[in-house]
Amino acid sequence: MQKTLTFAAVAAVLTLAACGDNDLERGVSGAAIGAVGAELTGGNAVTGAAIGGAAGVFCDDLTPELCR
């Protein structure tokens, strides 16, 4: 169950982090989504924010077809 929730949280971060026009916007939204997702799944919000923020910032570099 924990793996399913973690996968869902990561998928949400990657999907919703694409909703910004630049790296800063994607990073901020990714950090917020990551923190909330971590709290909902019983994880550490700071770690979730760091992972979500990184996913948002680097989304367009790693998968440009998903982030534009």
From TrEMBL:
Superkingdom of source: Bacteria
Q: Species lineage, top-down?
A: Bacteria, Pseudomonadati, Pseudomonadota, Alphaproteobacteria, Rhodobacterales
* Official protein name in the record: Glycine zipper domain-containing protein
- Source organism (scientific name): Boseongicola aestuarii
